[in-house]
Amino acid sequence: MNVEYFSEGLECLMYSGRKLSPEQRILIENSLIVLMQENRFSGMYFWGRITATKNDYYIAFGYTNDCLKDRKYFYSLDQYQWQLLPFVQSPKIFQATVLAVEPFVGDPSLLTYVKLDPTFTIVANQVVNISRPEVVKLKEEERLAAIVFIISEECAICPRGALYKMVDGRVIPNQMFRGLNDLQIDNLSYYQLYRLPRNDLKTNLSKRSDYNYAIDFLDTIDGVIPLNQAFALNMQSNERIAVIKSCVWLGMTFFHKLNSRKHGFLYLGDGRKNFDLLFMY
Amino acid sequence: MDSDNQSCRHFSLDSTSSTQSDRPQTTNKKKAKKTPGKPESEVQISPPCSDIITSSTSSSSTTISMRALDSDSRVPKGAIKNMILGLMRILGKKQSYDSLRMFVTFNERVEQLQFYWNQAGFIISKNDIFQLASSINRLQTHPSIMQCRFWGCIYGLKSSYYIVEASLTRDEMLSRLNMMEDEMREKQLPFKMRKNQEYKPKPAHIGPELTPGIYGWENIDPDDLAKMTPKAEPVPLAEEIEFYDIPPEFIGRGCNRFSYFVVNSLYDDWIELPIVTPRQIIVSRHIKKFFTGDLEADVVSYPCFPGKEKHYLRAMIARISAGTHIAPQGYYRRMTKKEKDLYDGINMDEMEEEGEEEENYNEGEEDQLPDNDVMLMKNERFEIEPLSTLATPIAWVHCRPNILNQGRIVWFDEEKASKERERQLTLYLKMRLMEEMEEEAEEEEAEAEEEGDEEEMLTGFIHAEIGPDILSSCGNDMNTECPSPWLVRFTSKYTNLKERLLIIQSNLWPGAFTFLFENTCESIYLGWGHKFCRRNIPFNHLPKVQEEFPHGSEDFIESTDPSVEEELAYNEWLLNKQKRPTELGEDGNEYDMEEDDDQYGDDDD
């Protein structure tokens, strides 16, 4: 959620049931403005909070040039000192993060050991070799970075038209974006995933008749698997605010105000994926 | 319509059993005490709840005391004088006297609480909360509602539920109890004893039409048809299995102590949720579903949930409030005996005279089982400790009773009830026999009594299920899945140390919060209505598909199909065989015939 309209955004996100206490709100807003100026970011966003048993993690990100590619994530335990989240590349860490079931503790240097699933390789015809499950050392800071990456890849949302692809390939917030109108606002195909597109450009363009190269390059959320079950869209406050909640990552809430450029997502949760989703409809 | 009817059935009750163990004890006590001089009233099987009802309204409460005047000769004269004075007072008021009004059950001030919620960082919305306050106010003016408080929000996929917890007035509760008891008594009866058994039509014929007269029987004379008996076996019919559920707790007791009202949008009228049955609680522990926001939606699950979404919602509310309503130690206290009697609806004036007896009676009871099903009172002498000492779950206690594995708060002896049913059935059958032949019946009666004695011996060995006590510490909460069930947070770490709130949030039920500030402590739930699970919940597997009809291994023998070449060879051989008899004559023909029969059995010339 953009720091530009922080308080207003929080008000709109109240439909998730949680928000920040006054102290937290003031601390975070001010410290993020300072952080933005120090790093010369052109945009600063508050990402959310991951509940841990001792101290909660607060996450924020900012960007300088390209709001999809060079996002920089920060975390904070005390809401005003922000540390850079490491960039995780190793697939083992991601695997371990998905498999880790223990709650976050709130100590970034904490080491835990996670047992990966055993791997099965076909050795010969109808002979399968089982390797022993590998044990991975998982630092909580890396786990945090991985879970933040996964969550924002899977369910960070922006309305169609909010991001604009320049001729040189950079993606920037669309200055001309004036919000979705009342015909579009309750339609899932007008919301896009806030990540680098995974689908082919042609696939995304061919989905709609009024396609626009600069806008429709992102994946829309109506194609997220499980279809029609991954997100729940509600209209709130006299049908003037669209609130989309992710059913896969419970706690991720997105809002968009009708006919205004204000939109944002916030994750307030414990970093747990809802694996039972398919049984719950 | 059908589904509506069904839901109504669920709404009321799904279960059966003997009511005796579960009836509010006070009424039993009262009855025993009120009618010492009138033995005939005990003998006749009058609806026992009439007694409770009368005690509630002013007009009939007078009749009770009058009766007491007549019968009780032991009461000294001064007491009688007092009583008459009290009577006059009650009559003078000419209003329904409800002792429940004297008890503050809930903190009703929504907007005041909203301030704290706002500080604590969990909240509905500023605009919504005003509407909510007005809407709750509207609900409160309803004559059958005593007090209500905002319980919380449960999110649904299409819309969320705002939930209000309400305590009913005694009149309302008693009129409901009355209906409920009749129904429970009906349900408890063994199937054979039920009077209004529905006639079920026999199922329509399934499978090929074997009945003469439909197809292919046109040429046969109808008179012959009437004489015919079908060779095929009749279609098997499903037998009715006797099945009794554990009975739900009475309204105003246990899980059904409060009633809950929900609404999707705050402009609408509040809808009351049905009572919860133990079966619904048990099944809801095995499933995890999203709420849709539609109360009448089906809950598609395995094991099959007995009811609609409103029943599921009600079961979840019962479980969540049992698990997450907490308060610091000493904030609540148990009721004293006087208050308890007052709460249970015994008038003060009558209580004074009977005080001694009741005390003895109660003591005897409490020795047996710690009473979990109680209403707690706010402790007037509670003094807040510094918040930092309370920042540990050990200093907090549960203030709602624990729900047993059975799905009830007060344990129900199912085996005893089943024996009770058996005994009733034998009695009933005996009665029938009596009508037919009197002599034999007497012998059977003697036998039945002997059996009864044995059963009583056996019941001694069944132990009641015991859960954690009400007001037990949160520090003792054990869960194998969740290592730390409670999280403690302050709203302010650095700046406003004097006015900060303490928040305790439940890990087991994500979304359940309790805040404490000076003398205000409230719990609220804002979440999806899902219990914590470590990774995924172990759903029950579906049972194996039933066999349509049992068959042995010899019934179907598999064989490989002949290939094209084999078929061609066979045809050729057949042709050869047809040609050969003309050439060879009769001997060869016979020989071939025999071989044919052995191999294939169906080929002839």
UniProtKB/TrEMBL annotation, chain A:
GO biological process, one term: cilium movement involved in cell motility
Keyword check for Cytoplasm: yes
Keywords: Cell projection, Cilium, Cilium biogenesis/degradation, Cytoplasm, Cytoskeleton, Flagellum
Record's GO cellular component terms: axoneme; kinocilium
Family, per entry: Belongs to the flagellar radial spoke RSP9 family.
Record's subcellular location: Cell projection, Kinocilium; Cytoplasm, Cytoskeleton, Flagellum axoneme
Protein name per the record: Radial spoke head protein 9 homolog
InterPro entries associated with the record: RSP9
Keyword Cytoplasm recorded: yes
From TrEMBL, chain B:
Compartmental location: Cytoplasm, Cytoskeleton, Cilium axoneme
Region of interest called Disordered, as start-end residue ranges on this chain: 1-58, 579-605
One term under GO cellular component: radial spoke
InterPro entries cross-referenced by the UniProt entry: Radial_spoke (IPR006802)
Key words of the record: Cell projection, Cilium, Coiled coil, Cytoplasm, Cytoskeleton
GO BP of this protein: axoneme assembly; cilium movement involved in cell motility
Name of the protein described by the UniProt record: Radial spoke head protein 6 homolog A
Record has Transmembrane as a keyword: no
Ranges annotated as biased composition (Polar residues): 1-23
